[in-house]
Structure formats: C-alpha cells, structure tokens
Amino acid sequence: MILVIILLVLLLFGFFFYNNIIGKKNQVTNAFSAIDVMLKKRFDLIPNLVEVVKQYTSYEQDTLSKIVELRSKATSDSISSAEKASIDAELSSSMKGLMVNVENYPDLKANTNFINLQSTWTESEEQIAAARRTYNAAVTDYNNSIMMFPGNLFAGLFNFYPVTVLTTTEEERKNISAKDLFNR
Q1: CB burial string 3-20: b at 16+ within 10 A, e below
Q2: Which of 23, 147, 151, 179 has a CA 20 to 30 Å removed from the CA of 53?
Q3: CA-to-CA distance for 115 and 117, rounded, in angstroms?
C-alpha cells in the first residue's frame, strides 16, 4: 500500500512537472515569436527609410544596397533563429550608421516623412529590446526549472534541454565614440 502511495505521488509530481515545463517552454516560444513580430515590423520600415534617404542624399549606394540585401535575407523563411539574430545585429549596425550620416542632410532631417519613419524606427527598436528582455526572462525561468533539483531528475527523462539566452555581440558592447561616428 505504501509503495502504491509513493508511486502515485511520484506520478502526480511527474505530471505536475511535465505540465509546468510545457507551459514554460511555450512561454519561451511565445516570447521568441514576439521578437519575430517586432523584427518584421522593423524590416517593413526599411524600404520606406531607404527610399526617403535616397531622395535627399548622395549617400553611399553600397550601404543602402547592403541594408536592402540584409532585409531580404532576414525576411526569408529558410533561415534559422541564430542566422536571423546575426543578420539583425549586422542590419542594426548598418542602420545606426545610416541614421548618423543623416545629420549631414538638413533637408532630410526636416522632412516630415523621414521624421515619422525615424520615430517609428526608434519605437520599434525599443519594442525589440523589451521583447528580448521578455524572451531572456522566459528562457531563464525555463532553464531554472529543468536545471534545479528535483526538476533536473525529470528533465532528461522528458527530453527537456536548456535554451540559450539572447546575448549582445562583442561589437555591440563596445563603447561608442561620437567622434568616430561623425567623422565618417
């Protein structure tokens, strides 16, 4: 009788653990989907920004072409999450350079369309940052659940493995020199 009770308690704990982890895993998936939605919004802004900048500037055509090419790669369905993150970092860097160089074009800076697009871009960047924080919090919660005792005993049994949090690249961590930005 005691063996049956112990088995029943272990079975109930296994069900509870499994359902709890599935919920946390789904939160991780949902949080990553939110990042995807925000990136799509940002990618949809790029053609409009590029067109407005082209109308007002003699900005390097190579840079604008690179931004358009990166956007095309990023919106492709055939890339992995890791590739998407890499392209996103490269695209962010190119767009920062574009926005800084806009300072050289007073007519563009005063253009209402550009001002609206730039504002939307900034808002989009803030939403992406918030979505990344939410994703990392969900990943940390999930990872803690499968790595801490007694969850770690069941995690391998149910094939739950840790997920990697999103990190910034070494280049993104570097201190930005305003002097270098304006002397391009």
Answers
A1: eeeeeeeeeeeeeebeee
A2: 179
A3: 6
d(CA 181, CA 184) in angstroms, rounded, equals 6
Cα distances (angstroms) measured from residue 120 to each of 31, 45, 135, 155, 167: 22, 8, 22, 42, 24
pLDDT value at residue 182: 42
Task: For residue range 127-166, list pLDDT tens digits in order.
Answer: 999 999 999 999 999 999 999 988 888 888 888 999 988 8
Distance (Å, rounded) from C-alpha 79 to C-alpha 73?
A: 8
Kindly tell me the sign of the dihedral angle through the C-alpha atoms of 91, 97, 103, 105: negative
Report the sign of the C-alpha dihedral through residues 59, 60, 64, 67, in that order: negative
Which amino acid is located at 183 in the chain? N
* Per-residue b or e along 129-142, where b marks 16 or more CB atoms closer than 10 Å to that residue's CB: eebbebbbebbeeb
